[in-house]
Write a structure and sequence with these properties.
Number of domains: 2
Order of helices and strands: HHHHHHEE
Structural class: mainly alpha
Radius of gyration: 34 Å
Strand order of the largest sheet: 1-2
Shape: rod-shaped
Oligomer: single chain
Helix content: over 70%
Number of strands: 2
Length: about 150
């Protein structure tokens, strides 16, 4: 096979100058079209690659759970708020510590739930009141807890 350059030379040597010029123009047009098609294919491949990369990253993000989902799962298993709080904390830490994916927001939420559990243990809150505050916090409502240094007090 001669390739484009070989075909051009072959076309010029085998025919009249006028015919060769037309043939060269046609071959040149075909070469340009092939280059254009390659650019379009490259653009499609590049777009697809970027799309897959974005989807992969978003899937990785979507895989991480909302921090209170661990606690909600434990609520179904444990009626006692302090037991539920410890269960949720253990489930969260078991997943996020090995993967190094514990978020600061998740840690703050865990500290808040721990402070509610401590208030229940110290008989400052009932299980029902702690659960109400837990639910209110999840829904973005106000809480009566404050952060003092590294601790959260309710």
């Amino acid at each position: 096979m001669l390739g484009n350059a070989g075909l051009k030379l072959h076309a010029l040597s085998m025919t009249s100058p006028a015919h060769a010029e037309k043939r060269y123009a046609r071959l040149n047009w075909h070469s340009t079209m092939q280059a254009g098609r390659l650019m379009v294919r490259f653009d499609i491949i590049l777009s697809a690659t970027i799309g897959f990369a974005v989807a992969f990253v978003q899937t990785g993000c979507a895989h991480s759970k909302i921090v209170w989902s661990y606690y909600d799962q434990c609520t179904l298993e444990n009626p006692s708020f302090p037991v539920m709080a410890e269960c949720g904390k253990q489930k969260r830490l078991a997943e996020c510590v090995p993967n190094n994916t514990c978020s600061p927001e998740g840690t703050a939420f865990t500290e808040y739930v721990d402070s509610l559990a401590l208030s229940v243990k110290n008989k400052k809150l009932t299980d029902v009141e702690a659960m109400r505050r837990y639910t209110e916090y999840k829904s973005g409502g106000a809480s009566t807890c404050t952060r003092v240094g590294n601790a959260v007090n309710c």
